[in-house]
Design a protein that fits this description.
Strand order of the largest sheet: 2-8-7-4-5
CATH topology of the largest domain: Immunoglobulin-like
Radius of gyration: 32 Å
Order of helices and strands: HEEEEEEEE
CATH architecture of the largest domain: Sandwich
Largest sheet: 5 strands, mixed
Mean pLDDT: 81
Strand content: 35-45%
Distance between the termini: 73 Å
Number of helices: 1
Structural class: alpha+beta
Number of strands: 8
CATH superfamily of the largest domain: Immunoglobulins
Amino acid sequence: MSLRKEMFIAIFLGLLLGGGAAVLFAQIPKNLLGSNIAPTDQSTTVPPTPSPTPISPDSLTLDIVFPKQQELIEEDEINVSGKTKPGATVIATSGIDEMTAAADETGTFSIPITVNQGANELLIVSLSGEDKTERVVVVNYITEEL
């Protein structure tokens, strides 16, 4: 037999076996489930859209003014600043530093914090009584001049 005939026979047998296996696998789920199972109810009900909960004026908010998300900084110490509830305790944490300050009577705060070279994930938390709000800001400390 020539090599060409052997290759043709091998391809033909492969297609035949592959097709037979495909038909067999397509029939297995039908045979296992059986045809006497009643179809289930496929109708769905849409739940009502919840209305937004109004925010009370006394709720704890936390707005970060500086640094902005993904900001490039050129100093290893920055002042995290923002606004929250007046008198709230604000905690700023970097990978190497954690500092605490109290917001003033207008809710403004500024906290000096040290960062590592490269990307730094800063966690800023505002606490007032039982309320807690937090934000994560990523900054990138670079030592090269742009």
